């Protein structure tokens, strides 16, 4: 039982005992339940001999932050405690989008909520909308404010109006909290540049290259093409400052407890505007230590858990998402380990599944996918994944090299093949993607491009190749069928639901032309959407196919995430097969064929896993009973089955 489960139990028990139990009383109960963990986490990072006073400051800060939380949101917190793990429900269906690319601004987005309801979306991730530098700003991830809305999107009042409207429609909202760094225009950075020693210590700043050079010996480069190295010299301050991502993004110094407490205050100001899920951006980088790569360090996990325990005490209805795009064995740790298992982030991106799906599309095989997923530790039962095929970012090839070698492939050659396949280096490949941040030193690179363009739709339409268009549509639906049925919360990237292609206009825009990720950040095409009901276009086919799958998901509780997934191993190297189980003995089987040819599964094998014909098998997509032909089940090229066993 993690702390959240304990709070749910205590709140339920307290409300049973006393009908008049107040919200303040429940806060005191949560504080007393969490305070020992908060103390232990705090002093694990900041030694008690030196920082006892800082801990006393934190203890006095928590009630103040609670009192600042609006009454309406405090009541919602209580409702969610009573609901349990609401984020694991089969009803959850997300969409990620840029507000200005979707429909102008916050008011424009508010006008389109009916579109989400029509598709079945009830969870929105809005890309950064807070104030940022006017020129280069990393798509808003260079932060000038954590809670003031940038004027291009509207006002703070517009955001508050939107969150109120979302609550009335039971739509959840996720916003980013850029926890690792600020922009060099942030108020703390400005004070540091003006010589304020207090704020110079809010960042990693040094008078000479002695310590930066020691860091550089083990620090990798995140953006080797545009921001080589990890430090930038600031002439105004006459000091070197750590800038792991871009020269205008200053890394925060969390070895200073004042930074943690200030950031906790900023976190609460963000959530108090009606945010339900907070995306902790770049959290793998939070703790820096000379002699390490300063990623995924134990102290980073302790710091995240400290944020979580404090947030849970103040606002238990708000949850954290780990944006940790790292090795499979590292991602799972962001749910918490050991004594803190289930007490770090409630949700994490399933980047491993995403990358493995793209690997299977290129190779037409599932050997690496099955091998890697089989080795991934089971997540805590209170946690869940966000499953996605595309997002605003690039596709990194974060596979475990040992898994690649174990199936007889050379890791370096295989990754080179994937880059060639998706980045237009192979004439026969249907994909039209771009290379991002290629590092010639080690051959590492990443892939950009919209899902439809990477799966062949752009090339098919350009060449008027009906066969290629048909194959692309099947692949788009099949890829989404996995994220809609795999254990966790599906997240669709806005535009993918209508097969939006690459947008090359960024190449002529200042501040964007050097960042190839903008190719997969297109504007929503409302003209296409207006014709979805009355056309037979590829876009219409994709939209209505996904809408049907979403509806099936929402009407079957077996899709709720209760760690009820079994990955089945079959000798056919082109198939991915997994089962979702339920206590009622119903079963749900997913079979995906990643090859361009038809494949079959033997009747005897299906019977062995409990899906013989005598079990009343039904294809959930067509609604028809399944009858095996010639003692085997045929799966079409790049197609899938959703099979329900009664």
TrEMBL record:
| Pfam families listed in its UniProt record | Alpha-amylase
The chain positions of domain Glycosyl hydrolase family 13 catalytic read: 96-536
Question: What is this protein identified as?
Answer: Alpha-amylase family protein
């Amino acid at each position: 039982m993690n702390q959240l489960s304990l709070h749910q139990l205590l709140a339920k028990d307290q409300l049973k005992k006393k009908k008049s139990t107040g919200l303040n009383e429940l806060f005191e109960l949560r504080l007393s339940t969490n305070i020992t963990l908060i103390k232990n986490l705090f002093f694990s990072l900041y030694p008690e001999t030196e920082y006892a006073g800082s801990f006393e400051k934190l203890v006095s800060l928590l009630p103040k932050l609670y009192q600042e939380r609006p009454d309406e949101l405090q009541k919602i917190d209580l409702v969610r405690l009573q609901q349990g793990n609401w984020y694991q429900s089969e009803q959850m269906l997300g969409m990620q989008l840029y507000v200005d690319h979707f429909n102008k601004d916050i008011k424009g987005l508010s006008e389109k909520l009916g579109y989400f309801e029509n598709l079945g979306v009830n969870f929105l991730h809005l890309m950064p909308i807070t104030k940022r530098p006017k020129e280069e700003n990393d798509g808003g991830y260079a932060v000038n404010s954590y809670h003031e809305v940038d004027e291009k999107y509207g006002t703070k009042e517009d955001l508050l109006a939107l969150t109120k409207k979302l609550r009335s429609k039971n739509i959840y909202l996720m916003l980013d909290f850029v926890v690792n760094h600020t922009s060099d225009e942030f108020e703390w950075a400005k004070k540091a540049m003006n010589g304020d020693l207090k704020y110079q210590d809010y960042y990693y700043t040094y008078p000479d290259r002695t310590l930066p050079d020691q860091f550089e010996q083990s620090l990798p480069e995140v953006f080797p093409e545009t921001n080589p190295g990890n430090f930038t010299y600031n002439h105004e301050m006459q000091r070197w400052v750590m800038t792991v991502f871009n020269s205008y993004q200053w890394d925060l110094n969390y070895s200073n407890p004042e930074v943690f407490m200030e950031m906790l205050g900023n976190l609460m100001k963000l959530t108090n505007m009606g945010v339900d899920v907070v995306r902790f951006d770049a959290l793998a980088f939070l703790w820096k230590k000379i002699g390490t790569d300063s990623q995924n360090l134990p102290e980073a996990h302790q710091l995240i858990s400290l944020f979580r325990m404090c947030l849970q005490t103040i606002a238990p209805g708000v949850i954290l998402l780990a944006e940790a795009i790292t090795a499979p064995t590292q991602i799972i740790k962001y749910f918490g380990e050991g004594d803190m298992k289930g007490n770090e982030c409630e949700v994490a991106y399933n980047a491993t599944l995403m990358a493995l799906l793209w690997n299977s599309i290129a190779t037409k095989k599932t050997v690496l996918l099955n091998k890697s997923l089989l080795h991934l530790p089971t997540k805590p039962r209170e946690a869940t994944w966000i499953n996605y095929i595309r997002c605003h970012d690039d596709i990194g090839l974060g596979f475990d090299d040992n898994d690649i070698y174990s199936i007889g492939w050379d890791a370096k050659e295989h990754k080179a093949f994937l880059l060639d396949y998706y980045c237009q280096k192979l004439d026969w490949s249907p994909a039209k993607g771009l290379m991002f941040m290629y590092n010639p030193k080690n051959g590492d690179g990443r892939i950009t491009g919209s899902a439809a363009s990477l799966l062949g739709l752009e090339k098919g339409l350009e060449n008027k190749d009906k066969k290629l268009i048909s194959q692309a549509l099947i692949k788009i639906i099949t890829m989404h069928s996995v994220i809609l049925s795999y254990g966790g919360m599906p997240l669709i990237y806005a535009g993918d639901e209508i097969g939006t292609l690459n947008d090359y206009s960024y190449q002529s825009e200042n501040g964007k032309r050097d960042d190839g990720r903008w190719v997969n950040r297109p504007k929503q095409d409302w003209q296409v959407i207006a014709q979805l009901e009355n056309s037979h276009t590829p876009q219409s086919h994709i939209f209505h196919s996904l809408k049907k799958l979403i509806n099936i998901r929402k009407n079957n509780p077996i899709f709720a995430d209760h760690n009820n997934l079994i990955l089945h191993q079959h000798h056919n190297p082109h198939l991915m097969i997994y089962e979702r189980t339920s206590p009622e003995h119903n079963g749900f089987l997913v079979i995906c064929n990643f090859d361009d040819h038809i494949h079959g599964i033997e009747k005897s094998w299906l019977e062995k896993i409990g899906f013989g014909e005598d079990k009343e098998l039904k294809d959930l997509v067509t609604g028809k009973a399944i009858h095996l032909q010639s003692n085997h089940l045929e799966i079409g090229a790049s197609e899938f089955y959703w099979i329900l066993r009664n």
